[in-house]
Amino acid sequence: MDAHQFTEEEIVSIGKSTIGKTFDDLGFQEWAKENNGGKGRLGEFFEECVYGYKKNSDHHADFTAAGIELKVTGCRFKNEKDIWTAKERLVLCMINYLDDYQFSFEDSPMWEKSKKIFAIFYRYSNESKEDYGKFRIIDARLLSFSDEDIEVIKEDYNKIIEKIKGGTADTISEGDTNYLAACTKGATADSSWTDQPFAKEQAKRRAWSYKPSFMSRKINEWFGQQKPESIITDPKDIERYTLEGAIMKKVDEYIGMKRSELVVRFGLPAKQKQLNRSLLNKMLGLTGDEGNINEISAADIIIKTVTLEPDGLPQEHMSFPYFDFSEVANTPYEDSEIYKLWSGHTFLFVLWKKAAKGKNQEETFAGICFWKMAYSDLMGPCKKMYEETAKMLREGTVLYYDDKHRIRNHFPKPGSNGVCHVRPHGRDGQDTCRFPVQDKATGLYQTTKQGFWLDRDYVRFAIKK
Question: Whole-angstrom Cα distance, residue 363 to residue 315?
Fold first, then answer.
């Protein structure tokens, strides 16, 4: 029988018959010998050897008669948190910039390929990563998505399509969206660029995909490991206000309330750790239990608490994790961790405003806002700052002696470009990181750990927008 004509029942039955088996049990080793080792091609192996059809790359579902797409994907189990996490994003199909903008979400090739997915899940482990045949299949099922999920996915789809229509497909990043992402696709730099219909600039070749954070949420739901919490109670609110707008409306009633008043209202200990996070969870209607996955974590949104002075200026510059000097010196900007952080995420700023200048002032809740770094900032001042820093580290020109013979550094300072800078990020002066080469001016091999920071004036501008 032609595999493309399998019924839904046949597809499910065959898939479920593999649960508990390793890929080697199904003949992976023999297949891999004839297919260049087969590493990373478990889906292709499954298509050919379990279901008996050749891989296709058209916009139709794999099993055309049943309208079902087959996916093979890995997941890890985190014992310390008792949860599953997706090994990687779930790639759906390539984005065709020249055609996709013509389709509504419901009629799109992307949705045709993904509205009905039968997924084979295997347990991934680092111990077996060089021998894919040892991975064991732990689940096989038709994937189900809630009405809320579909509303967010639809919103994400439309955001990406609007960028294509606006001639800015070259500025698309995974941080633009919540659940459905446009991930880069292309084996080499030369082949990873393609034409877009409304601009002369080429855009990176990308694929429609579900984010790993979203897949982690759904895997735990599908496997019955935990019931995800929801901030949004009515999926239609997403259509009315967008996901971000609906989340912001949840906390509107608390704006202007003092922290001490909110502590009493929600019955929280005033001295507990991570009080601000607990208050946010309560305002959003969440339990806040560790490991529970909600829309914010499913969209991989990063939460940052911002304390504002009475005039609205953030009290401090905004910090990010310290960086390894050798890694920055030898990593191109667009492959760097800070680029991935700034380009690949939306940030949620939780705002608290001081009643007066000085320490230990009463603070009131001033709301929340979502922020995504502008492409012009990401590829302008931020890229220049990173490359200046990397050059100093490679050349050993980081440090110098001032006129009082004190050791200083040449790293970009606050206000140097209006967006970002480098500053210490260690516990103290003894918390250091080693240079990739000896510093020329001082002869030192290390200095205090440093991190990339956003200027507080820039953060104020982001909040006002």
Answer: 12
